[in-house]
Amino acid sequence: MTFFYGVSRYLFIDLALGVVLSIFASYIFAMTVVPLYCAHFIHIEDIEEEIERDSEKKPVSQSLFKRFLGRFNERFHKLLDRYEHWVTRALLRPGRTVALIIGGIAIVLVGIFPFVGTAYFPRTDPGQFVINVKAPSGSRLEVSNQYIARVERDIREVIAPDDLGMVVSNIGITPDLSAVYTSNSAMDTAFVQVSLKEDHSVGSYEYMRRVRRKLSEDLPELTTYFQAGGLVDSVINLGLPAPIDVQVRGNDLNGAFEIASDLARQIRSQKGVSSVLIPQDLLYPGLQLNIDRERASLIGLSPKQVVDNVITALTSNGMIAPSYWIDPKTGNNYMLTVQYFDKQIQNMSMEDFKQIPLRAASISNYTPLQSVADVKSINTPTEVDHYQLQRVIDIYVMPSTEALGGVNRDVNRLVSHLQLPENIRVRVLGSVVGMQESFKRFAIGLLLAIVLVYLILMAQFTSFIDPLIILMAIPPGLAGVVLTLWLTHSTFNIMSLMGLIMMTGIVVSNSILIVEFARQLRKEEFSLQDALVRACKIRLRPILMTSLATLLGMLPMALGLETGSEQYAPLARAVIGGLAVSVVVTVFLVPAVYLMIHGKEEQNREEQSA
Fold first, then answer.
1. What is the 3-state secondary structure (H, E, C) of 265-292?
2. Which CATH superfamily is domain 128-283+384-434 in?
3. For 508-530, what is each residue's pLDDT tens digit?
4. 46 pLDDT tier (thresholds 50, 70, 90)
5. Strand, helix or coil at 448?
């Protein structure tokens, strides 16, 4: 786990440490306390008394549990006899058995693996979502308010009243410190937060899909972007509103915005993409003041003072010349601001704007703004973002499902085919970068884990071949993981990869039971095939016991019935699928491979002895 990258590393280091410590404690318990309990509680009946009781046919009363245990053992012995028959047939032609099993594993891995998506973390239902709304550029605040009212009405029509908690809308922006706490960048932007009740019957992502379709039908002129409002997504995306952020970098904002708009149009048409948003807007109407410094100096004003007079008239002087009044009774501070009253600002024309009075300390009369400045209408950017000192235009891409791998491949393919000017660069960022790096680190960690297991087994068995035979239990487990994730519509993510590591350790221990016991029987002068058949038959019970205990323990987690449990469901599904398939296949594959390898050695020894 130390090879993981980013957020995943800090989330799973404690889990890995807990597993290591628990297994270590279990080992100490198994080597000390378990033998004591066995000696005290397990009693073996005297065989002579049992034979005498059977011959005399004396009825012995048994408890319900003993009767159940007797029937279970009777049926289990029948299962063992059938297994012995099938494993004997499989060992008659070990090469064909190995070829069939390996061929089936290859078909599953090659045929199904491409259809299993990849994601960073499993998608959980946060019980809420956020809609970023952009009205037509330059819309007044009153128009934006009307649009958001219609958006809220559509939300209440789509979401059932029993599921809807509350709807909170934030419209526009004010030029003060409150702008820090909102994602809005202009009067034509807004975001709507929708909260569902705790026991909502329909998931958040399904409601997002329904609301998105409703808004596209009723309000096609609006640009909407949906994102889950969960804390997990915010942490994984490192604060970004999307897992994929395509940044178009360049000092030429107009050129970068044109490239970003064309790229966003292509991304929207890709399969698996639900929402695309460019937060920046370069067409917002604005006013440019070209101040004549000579005229302004004649009335005793600097260009800064001219701008301050305009801002004071339109917004207030709170941010320019704050003055406070302290209530003598309560001690509360109050900021005193002065500005035009709202009705006058709302009905202000361009001529009224040019007549804004400018006052200097040395002159008693006022001077209109148009006397010292030329006012011109222009288009301005609503926001200018930077990344590492470079100006960027962001394209936020939200996939329709939790699978990021396919969408990321499509986005990178589109980016690679772009014809870019020399001064513009395009780069893909977001949590998808952390996902790719984590997967690379995981591959290194898994390879290292297998190598360490091989080295330990090599030292224990004093052989280079037997540990490789034991590791043959891993490929069936991988095929089981792929098959189970595909059937359950899950993805390869950090959780399922954690389950893959846990599954690897369990299936290797099952394979060790067969190989180790077969080696002991060979030392007792059993033939190779008889040793393998007896080892498989005797060791089938502990293999099934450990495997079934793990499968039953993981089943509640795999179902994901509780709120938020879907985050850990892929881990349990990977363990269940890999372990179930590996147990069924390993009890035939491992003895067949063992016979193929060591059968030639035994044949050579017989020829030499002959």
1. HHHHCCCCEEEEECCCCCCEEEEEEEEC
2. Multidrug efflux transporter AcrB pore domain (3.30.70.1430)
3. 888 998 999 988 888 887 888 88
4. very low
5. helix
